[in-house]
Amino acid sequence: MALNWSPKNLPKHIFINNQYVESQSHNKISVHNPKDGSLIANDVAVAGAEDVDAAVAAAEKAFPAWRKVLPTERRNIMNKFADLVEQHGVALAELTRVSLGAPYEAFGAFEVGLCAEAFRYNAAWIDKFGGESWPQDDGFLKIVRNEPLGVTAGIVPWNGPVGTIGLKAAPALATGNCFILKPSEKTPFSSLALGTLIKEAGFPPGVFQILSGDGSTGALLASHMRIRKVSFTGSIPTGKKIQEMAAKSNLKRVTLELGGKSPAVVFDDCNLENAVTWTANAITANTGQVCFAASRVYVQEGIYDKFIEKYKEAMKTKAKEVGDPNEKGVNIGPLVDEAQFNRVRGFIERGQQGQGKLLVGGQRIGDKGFYLEPTVFTDVDINSEIHCQEIFGPVAVVKSFKTEEEIMKLSNDTNFGLMAGVFTQDINKALRVASDFDSGMVGVNCVSLMFMQTPFGGSKESGVGRECGIHALKAFTEPKTIMINLTY
Ligand code: NAD
Asked: What is the pTM of this model?
């Protein structure tokens, strides 16, 4: 069956109990196309308190039966949903592209594939996430059950609107929870379109619901007394507010996937071509709007000049790949909207006023839409904002270093701890440095990548908890210990 949603027929209503319904709140969101700034909708629903309550009530009603659905049946529903997401991948990516600007080949296809894969991966865990039991030598048999929490919620950002849903909704649903999704106000359409697929896949009413809205809707979910968990991906300031709301309401469980300013450390003995390719791709994929982008590149002085020459060339080549995301051969689209564009340009302008030396880029491309040249600063002041803050655009800083000791200190001297990379052909050094990084993820001769099986997330202010692998299932369940007295 064809998906009847398209840029000419955008989904704008909330999805409760397997129905698209008008929101009770009369607030609406406007969404623009970043390729030219044109208005594409000014009437997308903002779910208010009554809508959130209605979704929670529907989820509570659905939960007792959903948690007891046969594992094989739940698996089949999730796999069917994955098939549908894949089948309608081109249409879903287009619904993302109209508001995010991400080209299909370079990002849209990956993102939709990530969502489908997350559903399949977690569906395969359903009959294998077995709990524990402990011996009865002391007279008591102990059984530990992994129990679902009940009504859970996911609040997602705009930079990977479909993939992020998979990372949250799939483990939540696989473990028997009901799940309420709150997409970003900047990219609501592909998320809202999933309602049609949720119903077609066979999720019972109330199990998987979607509430579009802005931060006000997110706050209602985070502070709701009957929601037991919120899994959030977004900025650090919002993450902190969510943790506070969770604590002040019902101490709901919280997973936070937040920002980064990830270092890539390139040693003299690396494979130079490989290091340049990974670091250049890392900061330009999705126009640099990636939480784990390697945005601080530290290069040892012996290869610094050669690296700079090649990195500059790579960025100039990338600049030729910037353009209208609908056109073939374009790999890098615009920034998501005017606010993000102005924010990134502000960093670039201030960066040129004494924070560092502009090596390449820095200019707007064209005179409409929000396109920017991939940009690199060298000789940066280590206390400057371009060196310390997350820019969330195609802007990297490069700095030379002498010793491993010096650069590990600088790499870890930050409140972020999401991703790090080390480039060297010395296995001892690679492993030593990998263990010395204070971050949730480390790439050796690669950087800014993820896998479905392994924990995804950050240390320090980059987050709390982990997604992917068994960690995601644990994050959506509560262990319950049952103690059986065998002594009478
Ligand atoms: P954001 O924090 O502004 O918004 C994220 C989501 O939170 C949106 O859905 C928004 O509506 C909602 N929200 C805003 N205010 C809220 C509030 N007070 N209460 C509840 N919800 C609220 O972030 P963004 O600009 O959409 O995304 C960019 C940020 O996300 C960057 O910092 C990036 O590094 C981070 N990010 C992290 C990861 C990761 O996995 N670690 C992945 C992608 C993006």
From this structure: 0.97
